[in-house]
Write a structure and sequence with these properties.
Rossmann fold, globular, four-stranded mixed sheet, alpha+beta, 184 residues
Length: 184
């Protein structure tokens, strides 16, 4: 399951893609990223939840039901998602809705650039070759990459890998990069 949320797509980016909604742009980017990863389009589901004016999913009974039905259908053992203690409203709301439908699955919450604070239960170190591959994967999210270039002076790939390098340094692992997860 992938969120098709339209948040983070600048209006100027949309001008270069006439006729495409922000949500459609994000879905196309996510499909490209998944394809690069090796996940076929047939394995990706967009839930098309109701969103607020900023493009983040609303925390609503309707969206909880959509999520509940999807989870009941696929019966996951493990779910990976952004951490709830985050400045991103979509991350917070998605986690809150998951808590409403708590099931028999383990949730791995990852740290990203907007995560405030989290418990660090498990690290997954990776090297420079994997970092280059991850940077290429992240650049498939063209609208996010361009927004970061416009607002921060560096790309989405560099923003994420800075977090991964900081995690590796703080954890003391021998690899140059790492992801960290809180397990619930």
């Amino acid at each position: 399951m992938v969120s098709g949320a339209a948040s983070g797509v600048e209006d100027a980016f949309c001008e270069k893609h006439p006729g495409e909604s922000k949500a459609a742009i994000r879905e196309r980017e996510q499909l490209a990223s998944c394809a690069f990863f090796g996940l076929p389009e047939t394995a990706v589901t967009f839930l098309h939840m109701k969103e607020d004016a900023e493009g983040a999913p609303e925390e609503s009974w309707e969206n909880i039901q959509i999520l509940r039905n999807y989870i009941r259908n696929i019966k996951p053992d493990i779910v990976f998602m952004p951490h709830w203690n985050d400045t991103n409203a979509g991350h917070r709301r998605t986690y809150s809705m998951f808590r409403e439908i708590a099931g028999n699955f383990t949730v791995y919450l990852n740290r990203d650039a907007k995560t405030r604070k989290m418990r660090e239960d498990i690290y997954t170190p990776f090297g420079e070759d994997e970092a280059k591959w991850k940077a290429e994967l992240l650049r498939h999210h063209e609208s996010q990459h361009q927004r970061n270039l416009n607002t921060r002076g560096h790309g989405f790939d560099e923003r994420v890998l800075r977090v991964n390098r900081r995690i590796a340094a703080e954890s003391g692992c021998a690899a140059p990069c790492a992801e960290v997860f809180e397990i619930n």
